[in-house]
Design brief:
Chain A is an all-alpha fold. Chain A is 72% helix and 3% strand. In chain B, the strands form 4 sheets. Chain B has a 5-stranded mixed beta sheet. In chain B, strands 8-5-9 form a 3-stranded antiparallel beta sheet, with helices on both faces. About 11% of the residues of chain B have low confidence. The interface between A and B is large, with 57 and 63 residues.
Chain lengths: 299, 496
């Protein structure tokens, strides 16, 4: 008993014990699959055997036009989600933090509930809304406005629009919560000082809120870059599968699923996954360096 | 200060990613698969025959699969609890029912080798994903499993490490079976691995009642006109005659598909071509037959003779509604489409006539076997011999074929039955009652004219490219046929 007590109270051992569950799950569910994905991306894996084929999978990816479409789609989607899902949630967070809004709890809940809804259900509902039928919700609206009906999910622009709508509907509330927590950490004395100096509301937002929110913004940016590139479910649900007309809804992960799972080409699918990892890491490292997050903090 | 916030957020991120890791891995299998609507070429999968779960007013590509995903997975156990227990997976509930009926008969005839079978119906994509995963893992696969033809190349890739060859057990039935349908389920080692339900011969469906009403003539006169159609030119001319008579916006003679390759398959069969190049060949989608068909379809869309099928092909809710609204009055489809009429369009009873498909040049073959489900026995089966013997008997014996026709409405592969009066002209059969003529009379009349297009390892690639990109480009985006097929060939070449 004493030994146990000693062990747990030991300042040397305790920290390791506390982080052990994370380290274990990290090794088991992240590092091991990562290593095995890297290995598999250099193999041709068939039901009857596994063969080392060097970088052939990657060479094939360079020529694979469908994969290029997937990358293009994922990039477009990622950039547009950054444009939409950082400024607007930040604006909503500032509103929620101000005295201008009544019934804040209600509005916060409204914005957050979509994140709790099953993508399967919401995806199906959005698919029906964007149906090319004259009775689809969006067509009813556009027809009422005299714009006629559209084949929403067959055209690039409207298809991407539908995806962005799902993304905004789903993630605005989540990002807003991040920003609210960031805002709470800002010392109110800063605003009082700005008031004394005669700053306007805009100046306070521009010169106090935005700089002090930077750690939160960088965090949201980092996860949004990854989430944008790794988007899969929304497109899978909107087009009822990984296939869409002219591949307008195909994403990198959608392609990975199609190759690795549907077609059982695990080697090629792994190569797709590695490329995604490299792209996401590269963008985020550059972005973090530019933001100065990786620099030593100045005192 | 800044560090503290960052540290908090990073901790949250670690927690979130750990959880996301768990959730993400499971998602495609548990949630995702339920909603894939396979393309028309993939045969009988889309609107599962057991489709009471389908909501007819659903607008999108949603099919019976959606509803199934949200319901409990239907499981049913049949047979003798003391017999050998077998697991069977399918994606069509009625198929499971068929094995249930057959197992009762088997147990009566073989009291010393009784069987108990549990049939589980999963959504289409889910079932194939689960099967591949369990075969890869070497554990968890069922004894017997339905595999849709479009997915078959992925499964048969495992040859006898995954599946049990059926050469010996199928042998007693082979002389009466359509050989081409046995061949499509062969592995690259030449063994038979899948046992078919049907031929899936393509025929032309005509709405005689709607045509007669529009053209102001009797049903018999319409039928005489239909019977006079030999070539696609005749077919288009009759269509123009109908359209001139009906003269209403939104009415078309037929609809062409962007998410299914049936039309292209028919053209290939007529010219005796095959874009897969056969089992050992090189795939080539730039065939003359394919070009001719695509060009003809494009002209029809431009001239207003045909529309593009809503949601891509006629075997979806959108397609059923289009037929019910009489927006189109003719279309080519495999014979298994008969069950879609009885299940989803019962009010059309007595209106439709089945005829052979037109050809480009007189004397060509006029049909092709499309779609299908090959049932396999896996190497993980408890009793491989018993499972194989039962499977072949349940699907190829006369008793089995009788139930397949009565309950599932398929054009069975046993050719002897095609002109057997008791079988083909049974007026109690719901399909014989539904259509103006006897379906098997049409089938028998084209028995030597059914071509074969193989489903090989390259087929999923061709199918995917055609249905996602090429046909959309040609029929929706006005891209020239040569250009679109060249782009398709480039994608296909990458895979071979």
């Amino acid at each position: 008993m004493n030994k146990f007590k000693k062990f747990f109270y030991s300042q040397k051992a305790a920290p390791y014990v506390f982080v052990l569950p994370f380290i274990l799950s990290f090794l088991l569910f992240w590092i091991y699959p990562l290593c095995s994905t890297i290995t598999m991306s250099f193999q041709d894996i068939t039901p009857t055997g596994t063969e080392w084929i060097g970088a052939k999978n990657f060479a094939k990816l360079l020529k694979d036009t469908v994969f290029h479409t997937a990358i293009k789609n994922s990039f477009q989607y990622m950039i547009l989600t950054l444009v939409l899902l950082i400024p607007f949630p930040m604006f909503f967070a500032v509103l929620m933090d101000s005295r201008l809004v009544k019934a804040k709890g209600f509005w916060k809940a409204c914005l957050y509930v979509p994140a709790l809804t099953s993508v399967v259900i919401s995806g199906t509902l959005f698919r029906l809304m964007f149906s090319e039928y004259p009775t689809g919700q969006m067509n009813v609206i556009t027809a009422a406005l005299g714009l006629g009906t559209f084949k929403w999910l067959k055209m690039k622009a409207t298809g991407l629009g539908a995806l962005l709508l799902v993304a905004c509907w789903r993630w605005t509330g989540v990002n807003m919560l991040y920003f609210i927590s960031g805002l709470k950490a800002i010392d109110t004395a800063m605003y009082e000082a700005a008031d004394i100096d005669g700053a306007t509301a805009w100046q306070k937002f521009r010169y106090v809120t935005i700089p002090l929110l930077k750690p939160t913004t960088v965090y949201v940016l980092t996860i949004s870059v990854y989430a944008g590139l790794a988007m899969f479910m929304e497109s899978y649900m909107l087009w009822a599968g990984p296939d869409s007309p002219n591949n307008i809804g195909l994403t990198i992960v959608g392609y990975l699923y199609k190759r690795g799972i549907t077609k059982n080409q695990l080697g090629y699918g792994s190569a797709v996954g590695i490329v995604l990892l490299v792209i996401a890491l590269a963008i985020n490292i550059v972005q973090l360096i530019l933001n100065g997050t990786l620099k030593k903090e100045e005192n | 200060m800044k560090k503290k916030v960052l540290a908090t957020l990073l901790t949250a991120a670690m927690l979130a990613t750990t959880l996301a890791g768990c959730g993400g891995g499971a998602a495609p299998e548990n949630e995702g698969g339920g909603v894939e609507a396979p393309s028309a070429e993939e045969g009988e999968a889309p609107a599962a025959e057991g489709g009471e779960a389908t909501a007819a007013d659903e607008g999108g590509e949603a099919s019976a699969d959606d509803a199934a995903a949200e319901e409990e997975i239907p499981t049913a156990t049949f047979g003798d609890p003391n017999g050998t227990h077998m697991e069977m997976w399918t994606f069509v509930e009625l198929h499971g029912q068929h094995y249930g009926n057959m197992v009762e008969k088997w147990n009566e005839e073989n009291p010393d080798r009784t069987i108990e079978i549990t049939c589980t119906t999963y959504p289409y994509a889910d079932m194939h994903t689960k099967l591949l995963t369990s075969l890869n893992a070497g554990t968890g696969a069922p004894d017997i499993c339905d595999v849709e033809i479009g997915q078959f190349p992925n499964v048969v890739a495992g040859l006898d490490t995954w599946l049990v060859p059926q050469n010996d057990t199928a042998a007693p039935y082979l002389d009466t079976m359509v050989q081409a349908r046995m061949d499509v389920y062969k592995g690259s080692d030449g063994n038979y691995y899948g046992i078919p339900y049907h031929v899936g011969a393509t025929v032309m469906y005509y709405n005689v009642a709607a045509m007669a009403e529009a053209m102001g003539i009797s049903n018999d006169d319409v039928i005489a006109k239909i019977d006079a159609v030999t070539t696609w030119d005749d077919y288009a001319a009759l269509g123009q005659e109908y359209l001139d008579a009906v003269a209403t916006d939104g009415k078309y003679w037929t609809s062409v598909d962007t998410a299914g390759c049936d039309w292209q398959w028919i053209a290939m069969a007529e010219y005796g071509e095959d874009w897969t190049g056969g089992m050992d060949g090189t795939a080539n989608v730039q065939l003359d037959s394919v070009k001719k068909m695509c060009t003809m379809e494009q002209e029809w869309v431009n001239s207003g003779l045909a529309e593009v099928s809503p949601d891509g092909h006629v075997d979806l809710e959108a397609g059923f509604q289009n037929i019910l609204d009489h927006n189109i009055v003719s279309f080519p489809k495999a014979m298994w489409y008969m069950s879609r009429f009885t299940n989803y369009m019962p009010e059309e009873k007595g209106n439709w006539y089945i005829a052979k498909c037109p050809v480009f040049e007189a004397g060509q073959k006029c049909s092709v076997g499309i779609g299908g489900t090959g049932t396999v026995v896996t190497q993980q089966a408890v009793d491989k011999d018993l499972a194989s013997e039962f499977l072949c008997w349940a699907k190829m014996s006369e008793e089995g074929e009788q139930l397949i026709w009565d309950n599932l409405g398929f054009d069975v592969c046993n050719t002897v039955l095609w002109n057997d009066d008791a079988f083909a002209h049974d007026d109690n059969n719901q399909y014989n009652q539904f259509f103006i003529n006897y379906p098997y009379d049409v089938l028998y009349s084209i028995k030597d004219d059914i071509g074969t297009v193989y489903t090989t390892a390259i087929s999923p690639t061709i199918n995917e490219q055609m249905c996602n990109v090429t046909l959309n480009d040609i029929l929706e985006n006005g891209v020239s046929v040569d250009e679109a097929l060249q782009a398709a060939q480039d994608v296909v070449d990458l895979e071979q």
